[in-house]
Amino acid sequence: MTHIEFLHLPAELILACLADLPLDDLDSCLKCGNRTLHEVIDNSVLLRYRRAQDRAGVEENPCVASNLGISDRLAALHSREANWSQLTPRSRHTIAGDLRTGGLYDLASDTYFVGNVADPNTMSRTGIKYVCTSPMVEPSQWRMIDVGRSIIDFGTALEEHDMIAMVTYTPFGSNASIDVQLLNLSTGAPHSLAAHPTLHIHDVEQTRGRPGISIEIVGNNLALSLVYWDDELGDMDTFHLYNWKSGAARMDTLAIYSTGLMFLATDIIVIPNTVEATLDVLRIPEDEAEVPQFLRTFYLPTLIAGNAIVSMQCRGVPNPRLSTKRPSRAPFLSRPADSILLFFLAILNPSVVNNLFLVLDRARFLALVDIPSEVDNLDVPWEEWGPPCARWLDATDISMQYITTTAGQRMVTIPRDAPLSPAPIRLLDFNPANVEAQRKRGVSHGVRVVGESTLDLAPFTEPVVSCLPYVEVTSEEQFDYAAVMINDENIIGARFADRSLSSLEVLHFG
Ligand SMILES: *[C@@H]1O[C@H](CO)[C@@H](O)[C@H](O)[C@H]1NC(C)=O
Ligand SMILES: *[C@@H]1O[C@H](CO)[C@@H](O)[C@H](O)[C@H]1NC(C)=O
Ligand SMILES: *[C@@H]1O[C@H](CO)[C@@H](O)[C@H](O)[C@H]1NC(C)=O
Ligand SMILES: *[C@@H]1O[C@H](CO)[C@@H](O)[C@H](O)[C@H]1NC(C)=O
């Protein structure tokens, strides 16, 4: 048998062998000191494209990319990243709003959603309107799904299941029924994978008022929190977990004190606990016979006596997913595993409310959760876990109309009073490669790196250390938006008239 050394194979064959290697292994090949191997890797557009996607924390959208050759895709990714890093949109367009909207909003994937107000006197909503935010040949058309019952909130799983889940409130006698309707967004019809298109959550006396809701859908799991803010008793404030396909509850309900929940991974949920000031982490076993268990409790920095967390909303966009059935129209999709997590805290001391953002690096936080739990100590104090994966930001002057201000590794903000006195948009980019590149470049106009820092925040006993670095880009242009949002290809500014959405302005970056 003839003996052939790997590096004596033709370059095409070497490439074919390397093409599916994990990127760490490719890096090792580059560093091993053989020039032939280095050149083969470096000269390959395919491998350069893979490495560029990895650096940017994205994957290509197969539906969009398939029309282009690899070098064009690489060029498209480079120019996208350049436009984002300079905050220079490639194009902009305006989507006219609608006077009869309000109350509920969301931006998911490429789609913006808003409640349809049928009757301005009651502000009651039985429909949700939605529109695609991507630039299109034809002007974007609003569409609507009406469920004929009062909608108190909704959640979506567009990429994974083409699904919208409407949480409805239906009075009967002196009670009301709270239900979740699982619908196919493309058709508005019951979702074909749900054995029971309506999940009945519970019945509740109408005197308790309408609950605040958090809802997320990932894989087979649907997680829901309800808090009856106007009700003193608090015994109906609960967290629910279902297999939405079968309709079966995965566990007994848990008592909670505030809405807010997020999927850290497809089988791990974070539930903020406002009373203990912790993030409680729940694992959902794949085996339906096993009951979900709390893995660990991560403490926030210690609050000064007399301060109390009123609410802790949270989002990590995109959600983790097991498959991609309905990708957005964006050419590049942020990878869930690389995305940042955003928590918005309202902390009351007897006289003022302090608003804070906490940004966590999803991958670093997940690594702390995933440590095999033979360890007895399930409580992790802030100092042990927080600083390396966190960034605290003062949110006092920032518009908080929406929590949809992150996508992948980017976050966007605008001052609260921008409608009265137009102001720049700030883009915070937590991508490590971009932080590194900007550090080398040094400070340039409107762009800076924010490294490790210590903030003295009013509610906490000690100054808090944040080590998670980011690049901050401040736009030269000033905007009068009441709120800004972000998705994989756009920054979207919203303007309101009265309480309705008057327009969306889309800044497109690709
Ligand atoms: C790279 O490896 C090949 C095959 O083993 C060898 O012929 C060549 O000399 C090496 N080149 C360098 C620069 O080490
Ligand atoms: C971004 O897009 C604009 C408008 O198309 C273009 O003029 C500009 O050169 C692009 N790149 C950067 C780095 O701003
Ligand atoms: C939603 O409806 C469309 C149109 O009938 C269909 O093509 C799609 O497969 C449905 N999605 C799911 C997840 O059932
Ligand atoms: C109303 O809801 C409460 C709370 O769930 C329940 O105890 C009571 O039986 C309900 N009453 C009716 C008439 O369904």
Protein model, in words:
The protein is of the alpha+beta class. Strand 33 and strand 34 (490-497) form a beta hairpin. Helix 4 packs parallel to helix 6. The longest helix has 17 residues, at 70-86. The protein starts with 10 loop residues before the first helix and ends with a strand. One 2-acetamido-2-deoxy-beta-D-glucopyranose binds at residues 82-83, 86, 88, 90.
Structural category: alpha+beta
Bound molecules: 2-acetamido-2-deoxy-beta-D-glucopyranose
Low-confidence stretches: none
Distance between the termini: 53 Å
Number of strands: 35
User: How many separate helices?
Assistant: 10
Keywords:
binds 2-acetamido-2-deoxy-beta-D-glucopyranose, five-stranded antiparallel sheet, five-stranded mixed sheet, alpha+beta, 10 helices, 510 residues
Secondary-structure map:
Elements: H1 11-18, H2 23-31, H3 35-43, H4 45-56, E1 58-60, H5 62-65, H6 70-86, E2 91-96, E3 101-108, E4 111-119, E5 124-132, E6 143-146, E7 150-157, H7 158-161, E8 163-172, E9 175-184, E10 198-205, E11 212-218, E12 221-227, E13 238-243, E14 248-249, E15 254-255, E16 262-265, E17 268-273, E18 278-283, E19 293-299, E20 308-315, E21 332-334, E22 340-348, E23 353-361, H8 362-369, E24 379-380, H9 382-389, E25 390-394, E26 406-407, E27 410-413, E28 426-429, H10 432-441, E29 447-450, E30 453-455, E31 464-466, E32 470-474, E33 483-486, E34 490-497, E35 500-508
Parallel strand pairs: 19-24
Antiparallel strand pairs: 1-21, 2-35, 3-4, 4-5, 5-6, 7-8, 8-9, 9-10, 11-12, 12-13, 13-14, 13-15, 16-17, 17-18, 18-19, 20-22, 22-23, 23-25, 26-27, 27-28, 28-32, 29-32, 30-31, 33-34, 34-35
Helix pairs in contact: 2-3, 4-6
Bound molecules: 2-acetamido-2-deoxy-beta-D-glucopyranose (4 copies).
One 2-acetamido-2-deoxy-beta-D-glucopyranose (NAG) is lined by residues 5, 7-8, 34-36.
